Amino acid sequence: MKQGKPKSTAWGEVAQWYDQLVGDSGSEYQRQVVIPGTLRLLAVQPGEAVLDVACGQGVLCRALHQAGAQVTGVDAAAELIDIARQRSDPAIHYHVADARQLGFLPAGHFAAAACVLAIQNIAEIAPVFAGVARVLRPRGRLVLVMMHPCFRGPRHTAWGWDDKQGIQYRRVERYLLPRKHPIATHPGKDPGKYTWTFHRPIQTYVRALAGAGLLIDALEEWPSHKQSDSGPRAAAENAARKEIPMFLAIGALKVAR
User: Fold this and answer.
1) Most buried in the list 33, 102, 137, 187, measured by CB within 10 Å?
2) Do residues 100 and 127 make contact, with C-beta atoms less than 8 angstroms apart?
């Protein structure tokens, strides 16, 4: 099947900014929380073929390669793939392609796949999961990592402070209704640059995975690693960070349908 190559994407337009944020080994959150957790859930064995869906500039691909995997990365932004190739070992295979159009990849080839901090930037998720299921081997593994839909929804969740009880809390105003929001990438510098995020409740992901023949066998909620070292609210801030997760990770297996 012919590989689709979009002419331009919102992420392509901010590729240099994103690369400066992530670098070779990832942002602080990626290094401390996301990548270690993803590698643990994937449990990649040396020599296994692994697909990184919406790989960006290849930060997870490089970590998977270091773990001994045979890595393929796919992203719709040609600018990000160009950067990924510059930053990565030539043994990693990169393709410019829409995550919803994986038909150019061989069926049943991959032992595992990941989509990390990207599924919430994709408008339709059913084609993504269907494509991943097709290219996975039987009992192949998929790991999804996203900002926690319950507590990190854009515009409708926020930190709050209760003076009477002396606690920090997370306010959730809306959750179940799917929504699309623009996210400014350079607030105050270039208001015309933004990407899109798609909020969905967890049940939407569960249904879409099941519809693709992907059975959830793991679900983890990861808090922030950061700590407030000083200030009158430091203890309350740290308690809230530990109790209210920042990321949601889902592991699924390809099962017979």
Assistant:
1) 102
2) yes
Q: What is the pTM of this model?
A: 0.91
Beta bridge partners of 70: 49
Residues of the chain by 3-state class (helix, strand, coil), percent to 5: 30, 30, 40
110-137 b/e (C-beta count within 10 Å ≥ 16 → b): bbbbbbbbbbbbbeebebbbbbbbbbbe
Cβ–Cβ < 8 Å for 40, 222:
no
Burial 19-50 (b: 16+ CB within 10 A, else e): beebeeebbebbbebbbebbbebbebeeebbb
| 87-113: pLDDT as tens digits | 999 999 999 999 999 999 999 999 999
DSSP class of 4 = P
Instruction: Please report the domains of the chain, with CATH numbers, ordered by start residue.
Output: 10-148+175-227+246-254 (3.40.50.150)
